[in-house]
Design a protein that fits this description.
Blueprint lengths: L33 E7 L4 H17 L3 E7 L2 E2 L8 E2 L4 H16 L3 H12 L9 H11 L3 H9 L6 H14 L7 E4 L2 E7 L2 E3 L7 H17 L2
Helix pairs in contact: 1-3, 1-7, 2-3, 2-5, 2-6, 3-4
The structure holds 2-acetamido-2-deoxy-beta-D-glucopyranose (NAG).
Protein name: Gamma interferon inducible lysosomal thiol reductase
Main location: secreted
InterPro entries: Interferon-induced_GILT
């Protein structure tokens, strides 16, 4: 079978931007934590899978990880809803915005991450629907009112601005496939087309945990 396109690969124009020297994202929390970035699209099956693996990883090393999601998309001023084109359509852009708003309102991953996992639990097309986001927010004790405010706001901290910032950052990092796992500034692994790829150090929960622990040890010894 000829594959016409990869389901969750980014638009071709990004190709060539990947540098071997991945920039370390600016993380705002404790410098002793290991920055972990998942480059994702909220309705991409590989992202949901990857996030389910990281849900297990976080149970072991969540306290030493500074986690963030970095969303893949393309800024496009003719896009009527959010000014961004998302691979799986406008609903995915909305899903990205919901997750970004929750992470922005509730900085601790212990609050925003369960929201992502809860949304995923309803299936990928339900991610970003008001019904599911509201239900997840209520179930987790998060304020849907605040989230909705963020989602609808045109301001600097509003959902659309957060999405544009996130997709720009993703592009700068050279991330083009969902899900791309970056640990401590290094591209560690990619989950793409229902397979793990470029995972020299393994792709099991224990492998990611080991990489994170090793990175943490190196951060602790560093001056
Ligand atoms: C920009 O958005 C418009 C409106 O949805 C779409 O038709 C067009 O293909 C998009 N352009 C790119 C380069 O993605």
């Amino acid at each position: 079978m000829i594959r016409i396109f990869a389901l969750c690969a980014i638009f071709p124009y990004v190709r060539g931007l990947v540098t071997s020297n991945q920039q370390v994202l600016e993380h705002t929390t404790s410098p002793r934590k290991v920055p972990v970035t998942l480059g994702v699209m909220s309705q991409c099956p590989d992202a949901l899978y990857c996030e389910s693996v990281f849900d297990e990883v976080l149970k072991e090393v969540g306290d030493i990880v500074d986690l963030r999601l970095s969303f893949i998309g393309r800024i496009n001023s003719t896009e009527p809803e959010h000014g961004v084109t998302c691979r799986h359509g406008p609903g995915e852009c909305t899903g990205n915005i919901h997750e970004l708003c929750v992470a922005s309102l509730y900085n601790s991953y212990t609050q925003w991450w369960p929201f992502v996992i809860c949304s995923n639990g309803h299936g990928r097309f339900a991610v970003g629907t008001e019904e599911v986001s509201k239900e997840c927010a209520h179930g987790l004790g998060l304020s849907w009112k605040k989230i909705k405010n963020c989602v609808d706001s045109d301001g600097k901290k509003g959902g659309e601005a957060l999405l544009k910032k996130s997709v720009s950052q993703t592009r700068e990092l050279g991330i083009e496939r969902s899900c791309t796992v970056i640990i401590n500034g290094h591209k560690r692994c990619v989950r793409d087309d229902e397979e793990w790829k470029e995972c020299e150090d393994g792709y099991g929960v224990a492998d990611f945990v080991r990489t994170i622990r090793e990175a943490h040890d190196s951060l602790v010894v560093a001056p």
